[in-house]
Predict the structure.
Amino acid sequence: METLGYLIDGFGVALAPHNLMFALLGAFLGTLIGALPGLGPANGVAILIPLAFSLGLAPETALIMLTSVYAGAMYGGRISSILLNIPGDEPAMMTCLDGYPMARKGKAAEALAISAVASFMGSLIATVGLILLAPLLARFALTFGPAEYFALFLLAFATLGGITGKNPMKTVVAACLGLMISTMGIDSTGVQRYTFGVLELYEGVDFIIAIVGLFAISELLFFIEDKAGGGKEKMTVNKLSLKWADIRGIMPSSIRGGILGFIAGVLPGAGASLGSFIGYTLEKKVVGSKGYFGEGDPRGVAGPEAGNNGASSGALVPMLTLGVPGSGTTAVLLALLISLNITPGPLMFTQNADIVWGVIAALLIGNFLLLVLNIPLVGIFVRLLSVPPKYLLPVVTMVAFVGIYSISNSAFDLYFMVAFGVAGYVFRKLEIPLVPIILGLLLGPEMEKNLRHAMDIADGDWTILWDSGLAIGLWVFAGLGLILPYIVGPLLRRRMKAATGTGGPEGD
Amino acid sequence: MTFNDRIFGVLLIALAVAYGWGASQFPEPFGGAEGVGPETFPLLLSAVLALSSLYLIVRPDPDNAWPWSRTGIELVIAVVVLIAYTALLQPLGFILSTLLAVGTLCWRMGASPVRAYVTGGVAGVVVFLVFNFALDLALPLGPLSLLEVS
C-alpha cells in the first residue's frame, strides 16, 4: 500500500510535462542509438550523460531521460538484428535467429511489430517486478553493515564478468585497475594520493571522462580497424499487416520470456544475454515440433526480445536498491546517479523516494511511449540505418567531445578522455572487460569507506569482514561468481554459438 | 601465440609494485596513524593486482592480432586527429576545428574528401547552433567570432 502511494507520487513526477517531453526525447534517441550498428546502450547512455549535464537538467529529469534512452536502446537493438542480421549487441543475437528469416520472407514489418510488442510486454512485466521487489530488497539491505557492504561490492565485481565473460581473472585485473584509478586524488584523511602534483588530479578522475573515453573513443578506433561498415544487403520493409490473432499468438511467449528475463536481470552478472538466450530456448522447448524455429517463427522473435527487455529492467533492481549495477549500462546509470550527488542504495528509497519512484513511473510511461513510437515510426529508424558509419562515428565522437568540453571547459579533460580511449582499445584487444574498470572507479570510494568503517567498529580486527552469516553468504556467492564462469560460461557460449552460428560482438 | 597476456601481465606487475611502493610513501595523516590509513586500501589492491597478473603470465589466453600494417597507421592518424582537435578547439574555434577533425576522420574512414569535409562542416555548424542557441552554452568561435553579430 505504501508502495502504491509512492508510485502515484512517482507518476506525478513523471507526468510533469517537461519530464514527459524528455522521456519522449530519450526514448527516441535511445531507439536510434540501439538501431545503429556499433552503438550499444552503454555507449549511448555514456555519450548522452555529459549532454544531460550541460543541459542543467534537474536530477529526476536527467534520470528519466537517460532511463528512457536505456529502454529505447534495448528496443532499438532488434531493428538491425531483423533487417541486417547484425545484432547491435550480444542480447540481440538471439533475435537474428527468427527475425532475419522473417524479414527475408517479406515479413520485416511484422517481425518489427512483433518484437516491439514483445519488448513492451517484457519490460512491462519486469517493471511490475521491479515495483514489487525493489522496496523489499531495499528494506532488507538496510540491515547491511559496513562489512556486509564491503562483501557486497566484492560480489558485484566477482559476478560482473558474468557467466558470459571469458576469463574471470581478467575481470579481477580490470576491477583492480578501476579501483586504483579511483584512489587518485585527495583521500578522506586529506592525504594526496597519486596526484603527481597535477592540480587537475586533486579531485580525482571524473568517471564520466573515463566512461566516454573507454566506450565511445575506443569504439571509433575499433571501427577503423574493422572497416566493416555498410555494404550489407538491406531489407525493404513491407506494409504492415498484423492481425490481432498474431499478437495473441505471441502473448504467451512474451509473458514467459519477460518473467524469465526479469529473473535473469535481477541475478547479478547474468544479464540480458542470458535473458534472451533462455527466452529463446524455453520457447523452443514449450512449442516443440509444432514450431518452425530458425525459419522465421514469430515466437522465436517474441521470446528472446521479451527476455532481453525484461532483463534490462530487472538489472535496475540491484542497481537501485543496493547501488550495485548488474550490467554495463546500469553501471553507466549508476555513474549518473553518483554525479547527481545521489547515493544509490537502500537509503535512496527513503531519502530520495521521489526520484526513485519518479524513475520507475517513467520507465512504465517510457514503455508505452516506445510502443507507440515504434509501430508507426519504425520506417524512420529503418531509414536511419542506412547512414554509413563512416560519417556517423566521427560525428558521434565529436558529440562526445562537446559534451565533455561543455561540462568543464578544460582541454585537460579531453586529452584524458583520448588517453582513456586508447587504453580502452588496448584493453578490448586483450579481452580485458571495460565494465569492471568503470565499476571500480564508481565503487572504489564507497568500498574504501566501508572498509574503514568496518575496521573502526572492530578496532582493526580483519575478521569482522566475514563475521556475520550474511557477510559469509556474500563472500561465498562472490567466490561462486568467480568460479562459475569457468564451468557455465563456455557451455552457454557454445550453445549460443551453436544456435546462432556466429560469435557475436561483445555484450551488454 | 600467447605473448599479449604475458607482456601485459609483466607490465601490470610493474604497475602493482610501483603503485604499492607509492602507497607506502604516503605521509602519515594529520592526527596520527589509524587502523585503516590512506595506504591500506591501495596496498590491498596492489597485492590483488600482482596476484591476478601473475595468473595472466602463467595461464595466458590466445592473442588477438594487432593491426601493424596500414590499419595501424590509420589508427595512429585517428588518435593524432583527436589530440589535434583538442589542441585546436580553443584557438581555432569549434566550427573550424570540427570541420577539420570530423572531415579528416570521415575521409580516412573511406568517405570521399569533399563529402567528408562537408559532413564535418555541417556537423560543426549544427552542433554549434544547437549548443549556443538552444542550450545556451557558449562554444569557442575562434577567428569566426568576426562574423558574430553583436
